[in-house]
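Example record

One chain of 82 residues, shown exactly as stored in the release files.
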Amino acid sequence: MTIFTVKVKPNSKQQSIEEQPDGSLTIHLKSPPVDGKANQELIMLLAKKFKVPKSAIGIKSGLSSKNKLVEVAIEPATSISP
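Predicted C-alpha coordinates for this chain:
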Protein backbone atom coordinates (compact mmCIF):
# COMPACT_ATOMS: atom_id res chain seq x y z
CA MET A 1 0.00 0.00 0.00
CA THR A 2 1.21 3.45 -0.91
CA ILE A 3 -0.45 6.64 0.32
CA PHE A 4 -0.19 9.94 -1.55
CA THR A 5 -1.28 13.48 -0.77
CA VAL A 6 -3.13 14.73 -3.83
CA LYS A 7 -4.27 18.26 -4.71
CA VAL A 8 -7.04 18.17 -7.28
CA LYS A 9 -7.79 20.98 -9.71
CA PRO A 10 -11.18 20.26 -11.35
CA ASN A 11 -12.54 21.98 -14.50
CA SER A 12 -9.09 22.11 -16.13
CA LYS A 13 -8.71 22.24 -19.90
CA GLN A 14 -6.42 19.17 -19.94
CA GLN A 15 -5.79 16.17 -17.72
CA SER A 16 -2.32 16.11 -16.20
CA ILE A 17 -0.41 14.78 -13.22
CA GLU A 18 2.42 16.83 -11.73
CA GLU A 19 4.74 15.40 -9.12
CA GLN A 20 5.70 18.00 -6.51
CA PRO A 21 9.14 18.21 -4.80
CA ASP A 22 7.57 17.09 -1.48
CA GLY A 23 6.33 13.82 -3.07
CA SER A 24 2.69 14.90 -3.36
CA LEU A 25 0.76 15.02 -6.64
CA THR A 26 -1.15 17.89 -8.25
CA ILE A 27 -3.74 16.49 -10.63
CA HIS A 28 -5.66 18.55 -13.18
CA LEU A 29 -9.05 17.04 -14.05
CA LYS A 30 -11.52 17.96 -16.80
CA SER A 31 -14.56 16.95 -14.75
CA PRO A 32 -16.44 19.39 -12.51
CA PRO A 33 -16.58 18.61 -8.77
CA VAL A 34 -20.26 17.60 -9.04
CA ASP A 35 -21.86 14.25 -8.12
CA GLY A 36 -18.43 12.62 -7.58
CA LYS A 37 -17.44 13.00 -11.26
CA ALA A 38 -14.04 14.50 -10.41
CA ASN A 39 -13.34 11.69 -7.93
CA GLN A 40 -14.22 9.07 -10.56
CA GLU A 41 -11.90 10.73 -13.07
CA LEU A 42 -9.16 10.94 -10.42
CA ILE A 43 -9.39 7.20 -9.71
CA MET A 44 -9.36 6.38 -13.43
CA LEU A 45 -6.31 8.58 -14.05
CA LEU A 46 -4.35 7.16 -11.10
CA ALA A 47 -5.21 3.58 -12.10
CA LYS A 48 -3.76 4.29 -15.55
CA LYS A 49 -0.62 5.96 -14.12
CA PHE A 50 0.17 3.11 -11.69
CA LYS A 51 -1.09 0.36 -14.04
CA VAL A 52 -3.47 -1.08 -11.44
CA PRO A 53 -7.21 -1.80 -11.56
CA LYS A 54 -9.53 1.00 -10.44
CA SER A 55 -10.48 -1.13 -7.42
CA ALA A 56 -6.88 -0.78 -6.14
CA ILE A 57 -7.32 3.00 -5.70
CA GLY A 58 -9.08 4.39 -2.65
CA ILE A 59 -9.70 7.92 -1.42
CA LYS A 60 -8.92 7.74 2.32
CA SER A 61 -9.95 11.31 3.16
CA GLY A 62 -11.06 14.49 1.42
CA LEU A 63 -13.90 13.13 -0.74
CA SER A 64 -15.41 16.61 -1.02
CA SER A 65 -12.15 18.55 -0.72
CA LYS A 66 -9.47 19.60 -3.21
CA ASN A 67 -6.84 18.09 -0.92
CA LYS A 68 -7.14 14.31 -0.70
CA LEU A 69 -5.33 11.37 0.81
CA VAL A 70 -5.26 8.58 -1.78
CA GLU A 71 -4.22 4.98 -1.16
CA VAL A 72 -2.89 2.83 -4.00
CA ALA A 73 -2.54 -0.94 -3.62
CA ILE A 74 0.57 -1.67 -5.67
CA GLU A 75 1.41 -5.36 -5.91
CA PRO A 76 5.02 -6.46 -6.11
CA ALA A 77 6.02 -7.49 -9.63
CA THR A 78 7.55 -10.73 -8.34
CA SER A 79 4.29 -12.72 -8.24
CA ILE A 80 4.69 -15.29 -11.03
CA SER A 81 2.05 -17.97 -11.40
CA PRO A 82 3.11 -21.49 -12.47
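Notes: The beta strands are 2-9, 16-19, 25-28, 57-61, 67-72.
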